[in-house]
Specification:
- By secondary structure, this protein is of the alpha+beta class.
- 21% of the residues lie in helices and 42% in strands.
- The chain has three helices and seven strands, in the order βαβββαβαββ.
- The chain has helices at 21-28, 80-91, 105-113, and strands spanning 12-16, 40-46, 49-60, 63-71, 95-101, 117-126, 131-139.
Length: 141
């Protein structure tokens, strides 16, 4: 499945592909991204710089899981995570699941505004600090 598409902003380019060696090295330096590098990655660049990324996997032909969405600090508050999420959701047919920290109000607001619904909780799912996860689901049937 190809998720390559240009974003609306002239400053950014959105593409999904196997990361180049340089992009993989850059992602490996991001502590929160390093554990997920064996999954599919949708990236958003500003010029030649990695600005934001979404890591996902296919659980079955009609079920997907978003593992990580992150925007690098110097690019935050520009709507880049929303752009990536929308691009991803436009290309997927089926159920999409994700977990988000209970305290991450900004992420929860983003996901809910894009149509995700809370379907459950996972007690003490996160560490450092220990916190529950809210399980969200999106259906693009």
């Amino acid at each position: 499945m190809s998720l390559t598409r240009k974003a609306s902003s002239r400053k950014s380019k959105t593409c999904s592909r196997e990361p180049s060696a340089a992009e993989l090295e850059q992602l490996a330096k991001i502590p929160s991204a390093a554990p997920f590098l064996n999954n599919r990655i949708l990236i958003l660049q500003r010029g030649q710089e990695l600005a934001s990324f979404l890591v996902w996997r296919s659980v079955s032909p009609d079920e997907f899981e978003i593992l990580q969405v992150e925007t690098l600090s110097q690019f935050r508050r520009e709507g880049l995570a929303r752009k990536l999420l929308r691009l991803f959701l436009l290309q997927i047919r089926g159920n999409v699941f994700l977990e988000v920290r209970e305290s991450n109000a900004a992420a929860r607001k983003l996901y809910e505004s894009e149509g995700f619904m809370e379907i459950g909780r996972r007690g003490q799912y996160y560490t450092d600090p220990s916190e529950d996860a809210i399980v969200l689901k999106f259906c693009s049937c």
